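[09:14] KT: can someone run the structure on this one? pasting the chain below
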Amino acid sequence: MTTVSSAEHTRRDFLYIATGAIGAVGAAAVVVPLIAQMNPDASTIAAGAPIEVDLAPVAEGQIIKVFWRSKPIFISHRSKKEIEAAQKVDLGSLPDPQPDSARVKPGHDQWLVVVGICTHLGCIPLAHQGQYEGWFCPCHGSVYDTSGRIRQGPAPANLPLPPYAFVSDTKIRIG
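[09:31] RB: done, structure tokens below
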């Protein structure tokens, strides 16, 4: 009769190790796709992901349009004249009273960021148009001022403000 010392590896030890390794690989092969399918789709991430916009190349008086969540976002680099005109408006004369200071970030009065969709029926207004040199919706005649506030026409509310923050003096993150 032959006895095997416990220090030596047996064929049975090898089978235990091999079976355990194959089981671990199989478990990982099942768990990884299970967890991955819980993540949102790439198109969902792209549709709602924040975007960063560099404001350095935007000249004073210029309005640029970017898209976030399939909505046009107007970013206006307002002149001192436009800012003063927006701040001097009598709030009692506005259909949707809101001071200019509530529509811009503190210390960044020259930058106005609004969702470029008319609050009447969802049209896209034209920039630097209308009696107040803000936006004009040619579909039904809504007129917005340089602060995106409704001044005339059938629109019930001001142009909405998207969630945004200044990352630096020349860069914003929308979303």
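[09:33] KT: thanks! Residues 52 and 173 are 4 Å apart (CA to CA).
[09:34] RB: yep, looked fine to me
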